[in-house]
Design a protein that fits this description.
The chain is α+β, with helices and mostly antiparallel strands. 52% of the residues lie in helices and 12% in strands. A hairpin with a 2-residue loop joins strand 1 (5-7) and strand 2.
């Protein structure tokens, strides 16, 4: 008698079985660590062939109506198709019970055929035709369903021509059936989990894109911003991967970076549109100023008709109103407010008028005066603070999403895209090495698109060359990373 031990239901009878047990351990490790679906399928098939010591094998994946060829191997005649190798140009196998592989999938049962040429249970015209074409001789066959943890078949292993130690074809050993069935089941569960992971990732990516579309769609002035940045990012990463630059992104880092791009402005969901879309210093308040000046004109006309003012005084007031309207129209949209224009706005804000009840009102309210006094751009400091709060809100919203470890950096990178190396960015005032390289790249993409965009309310689109000059000036002022900017320019990712 040989000494017997047990491992996972497998009897270890002698040295040969001990080797098989070690092989199974290694196969189990491979199944649990392999991340590529094609390599996983190849591992499954080759492992089953090694365990049963057979010459050929085919792995099928089950879809709704048929079994699809994924991998075919016949070692003795050097055939290897499918997987990462040659494609398989064969029609799928219909789910008819006359076909042995279809029966195994439909009934989720293992089928052992000692001799396909002498088995009336199934239609073996396919293997016989294959034998005629190739000169091969199919004899024994073991067909194993691949069942997941719900008992559902997701595929089939078809093993062909078991061999003895001398290389002669023999029937498949029934003692190995449970081992192969267990292997197929473990592999099916692993493959199902991988598919779940892919589906979840695809769902997450779809959700992220929907979110970014919703953000951009809130404002016609932001409609293409995120999409453009993602395109620049993809082009840059492709270029970088083909370069000899030591800075290379892993696949995980690529996914995290691009997701950070798609989500970098998610905090803008809470920013009021009247601020985010503010085209001029007064914005929506312009109509109130225009109505007020029009009212002052009407009051002057009434005063003239009532004899309260002379025609000369009326003409003077009318001229002042015309000048005021022209001044407001100019200041409302001018790029930079000069000292002269600011002084004129201050003087205008000091003017008052009396309404029909004798109450005194200013030509400009404090809020309107404040808005018209903005030196550069269209936003007051208070409005700019609200806009800048989107970075903080981005972090808060993304932290609530509870990203997995594979996407752990997304909230950090996405929320930091307005940080500058000199510490003068926001929201945290990070500086230097505190800012990851991925964030530095994200910042450059964001600024580049802002400069070249044709849909911004507060400025015209700039040519590419001028935009790059501005980025270089920002690098000279210590705001952005010069090395990454140089790589971005070399990549010409915008083309």
């Amino acid at each position: 008698m040989y000494p017997r031990t047990m491992w996972g239901g497998i009897c270890v009878m002698n040295n040969r079985r001990l080797i098989d047990t070690e092989k199974l351990l290694n196969i189990g490790i491979s199944l649990s660590t392999e991340k590529d679906p094609n390599r996983l399928l190849l591992t499954i098939l080759e492992a089953a062939m090694d365990i049963t010591r057979c010459d050929g094998g085919t792995l099928y994946i089950l879809n709704e109506t048929s079994l699809v060829f994924k991998i075919m191997i016949t070692r003795s005649i050097n055939i290897h198709k499918g997987g990462d190798g040659e494609s398989i140009n064969l029609p799928s196998v219909a789910l008819c019970p006359e076909n042995v592989c279809a029966r195994a999938a439909l009934e989720r049962s293992l089928i052992n055929v000692p001799d396909v040429y002498n088995d009336p249970r199934f239609d073996f015209s396919g293997p016989r035709k294959y034998d005629t074409i190739t000169g091969y001789k199919t004899t024994s066959m073991l067909v194993v369903p691949m069942q997941d943890d719900q008992g559902q078949a997701i595929g089939v292993l078809q093993l062909i021509n078991a061999k003895d130690r001398k290389g002669a074809t023999i029937p498949f050993d029934p003692a190995l059936q449970s081992v192969v069935l267990s292997l197929a089941s473990q592999a099916a569960i692993r493959l199902t989990n991988m598919n779940y992971s892919v589906e979840i990732t695809n769902l997450l990516n779809s959700f992220v894109r929907v979110m970014s579309v919703a953000i951009d769609a809130r404002s016609p002035y932001n409609a293409n911003h995120t999409r453009n940045m993602a395109l620049y990012g993809e082009h840059f990463l492709q270029w970088l991967s083909l370069s000899d630059n030591p800075w290379q992104f892993t696949e995980s880092e690529k996914h995290q970076f691009l997701m950070s791009v798609w989500l970098h402005d998610v905090g803008k969901l809470v920013i009021p549109l009247e601020i985010m879309d503010k085209e001029s210093r007064l914005g929506a308040a312009l109509i109130h100023v225009e109505h007020r000046l029009q009212t002052i004109g009407y009051l002057n006309r009434i005063a003239l008709l009532n004899g309260q003012i002379s025609s000369g005084e009326y003409d003077e007031q009318s001229n002042r109103l015309v000048q005021a309207k022209a001044l407001i129209a100019k200041v409302n949209t001018v790029g930079f407010l000069s000292d002269e224009l600011l002084a004129q706005i201050d003087e205008l804000a000091e003017r008052t008028y009396e309404d029909e009840n004798g109450e005194v009102h200013p030509w400009l309210t404090q809020e309107e005066h404040h808005s018209l006094s903005v030196r550069k751009g269209t936003l007051t400091q208070e409005e700019r603070s609200i806009i800048e709060s989107h970075a903080v809100m981005t972090k808060k919203l993304l932290d609530e999403m509870k990203f997995s470890r594979s996407y752990a950096y997304v909230p950090i990178w996405a929320a930091a895209h307005h940080e500058f190396l000199n510490g003068k960015g926001y929201p945290l005032g990070m500086k230097g090495e505190e800012i990851p390289r991925e964030v530095r790249l994200l910042t450059i993409l964001d600024i580049f698109d802002a400069l070249t965009a044709r849909d911004r309310p507060y400025k015209p689109a700039l040519p590419i060359e001028r935009s790059l000059q501005i980025l270089e000036e920002m690098e000279q002022h210590g705001q952005i990373d010069g090395e990454i900017l140089a790589l971005f320019i070399q990549s010409r990712a915008w083309e």
